[in-house]
Amino acid sequence: LAAKLGVNRSTITTVMDELAADGIIESNFKGGTRIISNTWTLLLSENSIWNRYVNLGSFKSNHAMIQAINRLEFTPGILRLGTGELDPALFPSELWKKAVKPLENIPSLNYLEASGLYQLRCAIVRYVTKFGIIATPDQVLITSGSLQALQLISVCILSADSVVYTEAPTYLKSLQIFQSAGITLESIPMDEEGILHHRLPRTDQRTRILYTIPTNHNPTGITMSNQRRKALFEYCGVNRIPIIEDGAYEELYFDKQHHQPIKQMDLNGDIIYLGTVSKTLSPGLRIGWVIASEPIIDRLGDVKMQMDYGASSVSQWIMTEFLNSGMYEQHLEQIRTEMEKRRDHGVRVLRQYLGDRVSFKSPAGGFYIWMRFNKKIPMQKLFEEAVKVGVLLNPGDIYDYAPTNALRISYSYLSCGEFEEAVKRLAGITKRWFEV
Ligand code: PMP
C-alpha cells in the first residue's frame, strides 16, 4: 500500500494507529483490520446537521468495553468465553419444526391484547405451578424478553427520585436501564448464600425496590439458600421493600432438589416475578413474562402498547405450542443434562490450566463461573490480549460498581473442545502476571 501511494511505510503505520485510537478501525486476532465506525459521518461530523443531536437522548451509551464485546462477538472464529447464551448447536431444530407447524393454521397475526396472547398466558400460569407460583392469566404480561420488563418497570412504576437496590455484582443491562431512567442504584453485598438482606436499609424516604436474581445468579452463579430466601422475604415484608425477582435462570438447575422462587411465598402480591425463554430456548424469540398483581400488569401493559404494541405474535403462538405440547419441558431436560456436563468439564479445565492463579466456586446451575484472579490483573489489558489470541472475555468490572479482578466465565456457549482451547489460550496470556 505504501508503495502504491508513494509514501513511507511508517506513515501508513502511524495513520493506522491513529485511526485505531479514534475507534475508526479495529484489528482482529487473525491480523486483519476492519472499519468499525461510520467514517463518513465522523469525517463530516463538524458540519453534520445530526452532530448536535446524536447523544442528546436520555439513554446512556454502553460502557466502551460492552460496546467492544457487542461488536467482537460477531468476529468469525472468536471463542466467546463469557457469552451468556446457549450454544447454537443446542437449538432444538426437530422440536422447532413441530412447534411452528400449527402456524400454518394461525387465525391471524393482528395486534394482540395489551397483556399478550391469552392462550400463552394460560400456558404460563399452568407452567409456573411447578415452581409453586399461583397466578391467574390476568396477572401475567407477555414482554419482548425480560429486559423489556425491566424497562417498563423503570418508566411505569419508578421515578427519577426512586432507588433500586441490587446485588453487587449484578446483571449489567438492568443497571443501565435503571441508570438511564435517572434512578439511583445502591449495591448490596452478597455471600455464598445470596444477598445480605440485613444490609438493606430499613427505612428510606425515597420509593424503593429490590432487584434480585436469586437462582443461578448472573454473573456470580450463586443460588440463594432457602433460609436466605425466607429471611429476605420476611425482612422486605416488615420493612416494606417491594421485590423484583428475576428468574431468568430458574429452570437451569442441576440438582433435583432445586430451590423454589421467592415469589412462591408471596400471597400479597409484593413481588414482581420475571421469566424468559432466552436462556433455555432462544433469545431470538424475544419472549419473557411478568407475573404480578393486576394493577401492575395493567399499568405495564398499557405502557407496553405505547412502546411496541405487544411482543411478536408469531413468537407468542410458537411459545404456546412449545408449552402446551410438553416439548418445552422435554427440551429443558436435555439442556439441564448438557449444562451439567459442561459445568463439570468447565470446572475441571479451569482448575487444570489456571490452578492456583484463580479462585471460584462450582455453580449449582445456570451458565456462569465467577472466577477471581488471586493477583491483581489489569483487566483492560487482559481483555485486549485475549482478543489478540482469539478469545472474547467478559471482565467482571462490567457487572459491578467497583473493579472486581474477576471474569464471568460461561460454559454454555462453547463446546467442551472450544472451551478448553479458550482456557488454554487464557492461561497462556495470564502467565506473565504470575511469573513476576
Ligand atoms: N435477566 C437476566 C439475569 C439475564 O441474564 C438476562 C439476559 N442476559 C435477561 C434478564 C434478559 O433476557 P431477555 O431480555 O433476553 O429475556
Major beta-sheet overview:
8 strands, mixed
Helix content: 25-40%
What structural class do helix, strand and pairing data support?
alpha/beta
N/C terminus separation: 41 Å
Bound heterogens, unique: 4'-deoxy-4'-aminopyridoxal-5'-phosphate
Number of helices: 14
Order of helices and strands: HHEEHHEHHEHEHEEEHEEEHHHEEHEEH
Radius of gyration: 23 Å
Uncertain segments of ≥5 residues (pLDDT<50)?
A: none
Overall pLDDT confidence: 92
**Would you report the number of β strands?**
15
Give the overall silhouette.
globular
Strand order of the largest sheet: 4-11-10-9-8-5-6-7
Strand content: 5-15%
What does this structure look like?
The protein is α/β, with parallel strands linked by helices. The strands form four sheets. The protein has an eight-stranded mixed sheet, with helices on both faces. Helix 7 crosses helix 10. 4'-deoxy-4'-aminopyridoxal-5'-phosphate binds next to helix 7.
Quick recap of the structure?
This protein has helices at residues 2-5, 9-21, 39-44, 64-72, 93-100, 118-128, 146-156, 172-180, 226-238, 294-307, 313-324, 327-354, 379-388, 416-435; strands at residues 25-27, 33-35, 79-80, 140-143, 163-168, 184-191, 194-195, 208-212, 243-246, 271-276, 288-291, 358-359, 368-373, 391-392, 406-410.
Name the descriptors.
14 helices, 436 residues, alpha/beta, binds 4'-deoxy-4'-aminopyridoxal-5'-phosphate, eight-stranded mixed sheet
Give the arrangement of secondary structure elements.
Elements: H1 2-5, H2 9-21, E1 25-27, E2 33-35, H3 39-44, H4 64-72, E3 79-80, H5 93-100, H6 118-128, E4 140-143, H7 146-156, E5 163-168, H8 172-180, E6 184-191, E7 194-195, E8 208-212, H9 226-238, E9 243-246, E10 271-276, E11 288-291, H10 294-307, H11 313-324, H12 327-354, E12 358-359, E13 368-373, H13 379-388, E14 391-392, E15 406-410, H14 416-435
Helix pairs in contact: 5-11, 6-11, 7-8, 7-10, 12-14
